[in-house]
Amino acid sequence: MIFNKLATCCVIAALPGMAAADVLSFTVGGGVPRNWAQQAAPYLEILADRFGLKYWYTALSASDANRFSIKIARMLTGRPRILMFNLAYHGTVDETLKWTLEPGVVQRRFHVDYEPDQDPAATTRIATWNDLESVEDALRHGDVALVISEPALTNTGIVMPEPGFHEGLRALCTRYGAYLLIDETHTLSEGPRGCTGEWGLEPDFWVAGKAIASGVPCAVYGFNEEVGERLAVLLAADDPHAIRIQHGRQSLYRALHQ
Ligand SMILES: Cc1ncc(COP(=O)(O)O)c(C=O)c1O
Q1: Atom number of ligand 1 nearest to Cα 61
Q2: Of the residues 8, 34, 147, 212, which has the maximum number of CB atoms within 10 A of its CB?
Q3: Is the pLDDT of residue 97 over 70?
Q4: Which residue has its alpha carbon closest to ligand 1 atom 14?
Q5: Which of 38-47, 137-146, 180-189, 246-255 has the lowest mean pLDDT?
Q6: Which DSSP string corresponds to the chain?
Q7: Domain boundaries, the chain
């Protein structure tokens, strides 16, 4: 399967027309062997073509890809919360291990306090699947950085979206300034372009793990041009940390090739 090769690519970004070295300096500030970016280039084009997003990174699990996307959305919006659908599952992401059993009350999904001393609602708002009114009620507060959704709910039986639901969700995210993440970790099996390609969804972030690398522990997350350009500015300003990452990657590369 073509995506097997993704597991060997460290960090990737789909930047048609850019030299491989520029791709690298965008993604990790340099320091990674050039041929990694060159090897990644054809796969970037496939990802961009199938899922409609320009920039891509790899992670080791879909949970982590969701986590990184949430982090980026919070950094860019300055907003603390995410919005999820009740009974959805997005991996071991603290913000999404929540549900609501009584209207308006956000609870931890497990009876283990994995966020000591924190109000479960501090990071999370919960809407009802197929209910755009509940989405708008949550977004109206203006504190949601990112809405995370599967194309169809898959972890509570399979609940398909009603006609117009995804169009409405996209429009509400745009209206209220929240990013939209589509998590295709399960629904990728819909076809080579997942539900995103097949149904014409328009996410700002897109995540898949598991099947994307045929069982190799690997995930990808992509994001649109606006996110990529704003993120590049933030990362460029983060010098001391970028240098530490760069040194780490160089050592790892040397260790692997000695
Ligand atoms: C929709 C969805 N997203 C994310 C995940 C997390 O995947 P991973 O185990 O790769 O972190 C799962 C796990 O089943 C999932 O169903």
Answers
A1: 10
A2: 147
A3: yes
A4: 91
A5: 246-255
A6: -GGGGGGG-SS----TT--HHHHHHHHHSS-S-HHHHHHHHHHHHHHHHHH--SEEEEESSHHHHHHHHHHHHHHHH---EEEEETT---SS-GGGSEE-SSTT--EESSSS-SSTT--GGGTEEEE-TT-HHHHHHHHTTS-EEEEEE-SSB-SSS-BPPPTTHHHHHHHHHHHHT-EEEEE-TTGGGG-TTHHHHHHT---SEEEE-GGGGTTSS-EEEEE-HHHHHHHHHHHHT-HHHHHHHHHHHHHHHHHHH-
A7: 2-257
